[in-house]
């Protein structure tokens, strides 16, 4: 497999945004087969991280940064370029561009939702004044200018005072009593949720962004899509099967 510095370009649809700097891309494949997927991490920046474990806490503004990127690119076609593949993890780093928006790394930095990683070497290190500026050096200078403007404007991560909801509080509804209580409190209501994952054609993992964010699995009533095998973890199967059943019956 390829590792180190590479250059792989193409076009793909953004399937999901797990973190502000991470895009799950899906391409086109042969009929009857699952399309190829690629996880691309935007290089050269640092973003606040969304907690992936239930007992962990988001970094400040992680949800705001992720939501900014998700609303901007979800379901849209982007041009991506992989420039580096990590030797051990195989993670792919690079850039992505969206029509009428441009470079997504630059957009994140300009809006204050990402910070620039320190340059490996100073931009003015070359002693030859007539030396040609390298593309990566030029890119760094552009990002540096956009970051300086965001800091000056005190936007995003650079806000003078953190907002009250800078760190979200999350409740994962997996236990039977939690699900029943949530159902009884919201029966008949229309709730504006974020689709975090399409588990199967009729199963959605949703996040309800209230004061305390509620995360749960919804199974569409009256329909059943082809099943995708669930990981062989007793707790996972039990909890999510329970959530599917309850929402199939009541919603």
UniProtKB/TrEMBL annotation:
One of its GO terms (biological process) is mRNA catabolic process. Signal peptide: none annotated. One of its GO terms (molecular function) is RNA binding. Gene3D superfamilies: 2.40.50.90. One of its GO terms (cellular component) is cytosol. It comes from the Eukaryota. Residues 12-160 form the TNase-like domain. This is TNase-like domain-containing protein.
């Amino acid at each position: 497999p390829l590792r180190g510095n590479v250059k792989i370009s193409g076009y793909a649809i953004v399937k999901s945004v797990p973190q502000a700097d991470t895009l799950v891309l899906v391409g086109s494949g042969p009929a009857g087969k699952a399309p190829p997927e690629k996880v691309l991490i935007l290089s050269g920046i640092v973003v606040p991280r969304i907690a992936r474990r239930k007992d962990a806490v988001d970094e400040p503004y992680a949800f705001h940064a992720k939501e900014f990127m998700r609303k901007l690119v979800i379901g849209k076609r982007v041009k991506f370029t992989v420039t580096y593949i990590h030797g051990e993890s195989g993670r792919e780093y690079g850039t992505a561009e969206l029509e009428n928006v441009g470079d997504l790394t630059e957009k994140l930095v300009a809006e204050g939702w990402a910070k620039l990683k320190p340059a490996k070497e100073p931009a003015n290190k070359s002693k030859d004044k007539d030396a040609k500026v390298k593309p990566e050096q030029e890119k760094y200078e552009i990002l540096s200018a956009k970051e300086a403007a965001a800091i000056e404007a005190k936007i995003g991560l650079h806000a003078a005072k953190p907002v009250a909801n800078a760190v979200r509080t999350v409740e994962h509804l997996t236990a039977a009593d939690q699900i029943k209580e949530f159902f009884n409190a919201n029966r008949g209501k229309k709730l504006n949720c974020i689709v975090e994952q399409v588990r199967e054609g009729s199963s959605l993992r949703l996040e309800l962004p209230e004061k305390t964010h509620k995360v749960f699995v919804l199974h569409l009533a009256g329909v059943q899509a082809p099943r995708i095998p669930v990981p062989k973890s007793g707790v996972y199967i039990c909890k999510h099967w329970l959530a599917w059943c309850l929402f199939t019956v009541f919603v």
